[in-house]
Design a protein that fits this description.
The complex is a heterotrimer. Chain B has one domain. Helices cover 86% and strands 0% of the residues of chain B. Chain B has helices at 2-22, 26-50, 57-66, 69-94. Chain C is mostly helical. Chain C has one domain. In chain C, 81% of the residues lie in helices and 0% in strands. The N and C termini of chain C lie far apart (63 Å). Classes of the chains: A mainly alpha, B mainly alpha, C mainly alpha. Chain A binds chain C through residues 193, 196, 198-199, 202, 205-206, 209, and chain C through 75, 78-79, 82-83, 85-86, 89.
Chain lengths: 331, 95, 113
């Protein structure tokens, strides 16, 4: 039954993908990307990967559409027509892509079947994670244990990547501080969706709930699906919703640019500092066991702190990127 | 038992996807995406119970809450585009 | 006995919800213009969602899951009509006129001409 649903979802995903490639209108492509994200999240859910599905939900459902549209506002909506003639170079490209695709497909025959219990990763690493989570860390969600503790290096790397991406976007687009310093008062034109009365009322009603859900996902990550990445995205979504409804300036007066930059760097630094604290207290980098008298308790503290760092960085980066696009568009 | 509901949701998703691909206006596509989102909420809720994993409902909650942000972003985008078109007209008249 | 009654009730709700979803889906595909399509979509968003989630709630019994489902239902019922309202208002402002009279029977491409 799961297979049937999976095939159905993946077929829809393929249709969506082809439509995205086919369309010349980028706005249509953005809309279809939203559908693709929903389909991917549903597929993850079908495979029992709730943490990943939650990430896709938090990022794909709202934020990526917002950011794509922000980018689209800076450029043109129509893709330029490409030359349709088949030259030798395009044939060559087609040939190379075809050969590589065939090799990749051929290589998959050597792989163990998806979810096969005899696959090497299931035989050694996964059982070790599952058993050690109970003994060493003692939290119900093994995914959080793997992400935050066993593979803390990888996660630190991911957070640094998120931070770097945020810095990169800000370098390209600017923080918009100069145009704002010139004193753009709340004019009719950049006041957000103020004319839409019903969405504004509803938004005011829902923003606290979204924030609450964000904090729930942040601090409940050890027990259920969730964690810093998802929580950061949800909290960013609530701020972005506020900015859409009340105007970007208002959102910036709630959380100024400086605070956002501090969040971006501060979260990453917090993660790193927890790692260094492990060294200072006489163990390895990112070994949280020494943070408290009781090793298991120390792991809990470490995971709590680094998840907080992740959440702060992700929220800061996403909100900053949104403001960067918005400031660029109104300038 | 959930099978019928899940199947109906999946077929409805396919129909909505078809509408999103066919258009014809941008509003039709936005409508289809929004509808697709609420269908995903229903699908995931039913799947969570089909698998006997009610704790996965947190994820459905996330969707139910932040799915509509996309629609507001689209509206803001339309507003911005209309504003730019107006500005373009004003500048063209000045010249 | 009670269990069977609850099972049957939940089955009926889920099946009715599924039927509503399908009708709405077909409507979104077949209706002639944006506003009538919106009407069909709102059928799936309201009636379909209510019936399906109520059906699942009956299965869940008295638990945290039921509360969460209730919250999900409330949020869905708040957000999707609001989104539809904002979308319709925006489309009307942008000059998408509802089709009336004879033009209802034309296809999309014919109506644009």
């Amino acid at each position: 039954m799961t297979t049937l649903f999976g095939i159905f979802l993946l077929t829809l995903l393929m249709i969506t993908g082809m439509a995205i490639v086919h369309t010349r209108n980028l706005f249509v492509a953005v809309m279809l990307m939203g559908i693709a994200s929903l389909l991917i999240a549903a597929s993850f859910f079908l495979l029992d990967a709730a943490d990943v599905a939650l990430t896709e939900a938090a990022i794909g459902a709202g934020i990526s559409t917002v950011l794509f549209l922000g980018a689209l506002a800076l450029t043109s909506e129509r893709e330029r027509k490409r030359r349709r003639s088949l030259s030798t170079s395009s044939l060559l490209q087609f040939g190379i892509v075809g050969v590589v695709a065939l090799i990749v497909i051929w290589a998959t025959f050597d792989q163990p079947r998806l979810g096969s219990p005899s696959a090497p990763v299931q035989a050694h690493l996964t059982p070790w994670y599952i058993e050690s989570t109970r003994d060493l860390i003692d939290i119900p969600n093994a995914v959080t244990a793997v992400l935050a503790s066993f593979r803390g290096y990888d996660t630190l790397g991911e957070v640094v990547v998120v931070f770097t991406a945020g810095v990169g976007v800000l370098f390209l687009l600017g923080t918009g501080a100069s145009s704002r310093a010139a004193g753009a008062p709340l004019s009719e034109d950049n006041a957000g969706l103020r004319h839409y009365l019903i969405p504004r009322i509803l938004g005011r009603l829902l923003i606290p709930f979204i924030l609450l859900l964000g904090f729930y996902v942040q601090f409940h990550g050890e027990y259920g699906p969730g964690g810093g990445f998802q929580a950061g995205a949800i909290i960013a979504a609530s701020v972005i919703l506020y900015a859409l409804l009340e105007g970007e300036q208002r959102a910036l007066s709630v959380i100024p640019q400086g605070v956002l930059l501090a969040m971006m760097a501060g979260g990453t630094l917090l993660f790193g500092a927890v790692g260094v604290a492990g060294i200072v207290l006489g163990s390895n980098f990112l070994d949280y066991s020494v943070l408290s008298e009781d090793p298991v308790n120390g792991q809990h503290w470490g995971i709590l702190l680094i998840e907080m760092g992740i959440g702060i960085t992700v929220a800061g980066v996403l909100i900053s990127i949104f403001h960067a696009f918005a400031a660029r568009a109104t300038a | 038992m959930y099978f019928a509901a899940i199947l109906a949701t999946l077929v409805t998703m396919a129909l909505a996807l078809l509408r999103a691909v066919r258009g014809p206006t941008v509003y039709d596509r936005v409508l289809a995406v929004n509808m697709f989102g609420t269908k995903t909420v229903l699908l995931l809720a039913a799947l969570a119970f089909l698998f006997g994993r009610p704790d996965f409902l947190d994820l459905v909650l996330v969707y139910a809450l932040i799915n509509f942000i996309g629609v507001f972003a689209v509206l803001e985008f339309f507003r911005y585009r209309a504003m730019r078109a107006r500005q373009g007209q004003v500048e063209a008249q000045r010249e | 006995m009670m269990d069977i009654a609850i099972d049957i009730a939940s089955w009926v709700l889920l099946a009715l919800g599924g039927v509503n979803l399908l009708i709405g889906g077909i409507g979104v595909l077949r209706m002639p213009d944006l506003y009538t399509r919106m009407h069909a979509a709102s059928l799936t968003d309201s009636m379909g969602a209510i019936l399906v989630i109520l059906g699942i709630m009956l299965q869940a019994g008295l638990s945290l899951a039921t509360v969460k489902l209730g919250v999900i239902l409330v949020f869905l019922l708040l957000t999707s009509p609001t989104a539809a309202n904002a979308l319709a208002a925006s489309a009307l402002l942008a000059g998408v006129t509802p089709r009336t009279g004879q033009s209802l029977h034309l296809s999309d491409s014919e109506a644009r001409e």
